[in-house]
Amino acid sequence: MQPKYKIVIEEIKSWLFEEQFLPHQKLPTETQLMDRFSVSRHTIRRAIGDLEVENYLYRIQGGGIYAADWKGKQTNQTPTKTIAVLTTHIADYIFPNIIVGIEKVLSEHSFSLLLASTHNDPLVERKSLENLLSQPIEGMIVEPTKSSHPSQNIGIYKNMKNNHIPCLMINSAYQDSDFPRITIDDFKGGYMATEHLLELGHVEILGIFKTDDQQGVKRMNGFISAYQQNPSVSSIGQFITFQTNEEKKELPERIRAVLKQANKPTGIFCYNDQVAVQVISIAKELGIDVPNELSIVGYDDSPIASILDVKLTTIRHPQEQMGIDAGRMILKLIESGTSDVAQSILYEPELITRQSTKEIKR
């Protein structure tokens, strides 16, 4: 658990980042801050002291506590040629390849990267944004957190926009932001994956979708549309939806329950390759043969897709190319000083057919 004075520091910083208090505007008194945070005067004074050292606040003897011109101090510093990259994850899955692409471009222009991850948690995203924006960065590349929900941190993003901090979004974008974005057509990808299973004769298809990000919602809508465009199929298949915090425990239990049913599906379209690996593992545990009894389609064409015992049919994500394009775009934004010069990029999905899908025998 964080010390109380650090909780006070983080909250006051968030006020400044969201411009609830502008430079040289007076903050609440020590007594008011004590009441607001339910802490002692010693805790408030320690927090204020640390914020003074970091040039976020200053005091006037007998006059109170004031917001410092912390942005002006950063603007006057010598450019560090540093780009912040904030993703939902860093160390696993497709993200290392995206970061490799970004770094490949930026290193050619003598820029360095400052990396952070949110673990798809809005509170962690807020803290990460505050930390990154307190550094002398020249721009930011962001993968939104829980992008199908209204952003809890939209005030910080709007403040970045108002202060002309170059920013772009990858993989998805918040609905109430207008930063340029680099994404894949996830609706079309979901349609293609489902259509592939339908063309192989599968009718009872299970769709597994994460619904707290836009990618999952769009892939699910593509799944539904593929059924709607095949009127010979009498009904839409089954669904399992899940949130990020359910992926490791609740989701496998739901998949296992469906695969134990007498009328279990013959095909499954998974939100991504990680989920597909879970499905393959559970199918093996239950003695279900992939692909002879169960066809599986993943999404992203991650490194694991081609090294499984049964190599995975999947939709390709342009991982390194996305990173390269993001690097080029952020440099263009920095050079121009405005987001209006950058055109958003929408990649076409590509179906990669391997061994995990097979025509059904009826």
Flag low-confidence runs.
none
Shape: elongated
Distance between the termini: 58 Å
* Beta-strand residue percentage: 15-25%
Strand arrangement, largest sheet?
Answer: 4-3-5-6-7-13
Can you give a write-up of this model?
The model has no long low-confidence stretch (mean pLDDT 90). The protein contains 12 helices and 14 strands. Helix 1 (4-17) packs across helix 3, helix 1 (4-17) crosses helix 6 (122-133) and helix 5 crosses helix 12 (319-336). The strands form 4 sheets. The chain has a 6-stranded parallel β-sheet, with helices on both faces. The protein has a 4-stranded parallel β-sheet with strand order 9-8-10-11, with helices on both faces. It is α/β, with parallel strands linked by helices and 362 residues long. The chain has helices at residues 4-17, 30-37, 41-53, 70-75, 95-108, 122-133, 154-162, 186-199, 214-228, 250-259, 273-285, 319-336; strands at 57-60, 64-67, 82-87, 112-117, 139-142, 167-170, 181-184, 205-210, 238-242, 267-270, 295-297, 314-316, 345-347, 350-352. It is 40% helix and 16% strand.
Secondary-structure blueprint:
Layout: H1 4-17, H2 30-37, H3 41-53, E1 57-60, E2 64-67, H4 70-75, E3 82-87, H5 95-108, E4 112-117, H6 122-133, E5 139-142, H7 154-162, E6 167-170, E7 181-184, H8 186-199, E8 205-210, H9 214-228, E9 238-242, H10 250-259, E10 267-270, H11 273-285, E11 295-297, E12 314-316, H12 319-336, E13 345-347, E14 350-352
Parallel strand pairs: 3-4, 3-5, 5-6, 6-7, 7-13, 8-9, 8-10, 10-11
Antiparallel strand pairs: 1-2, 12-14
Helix pairs in contact: 1-3, 1-6, 2-3, 5-12, 8-9, 10-11
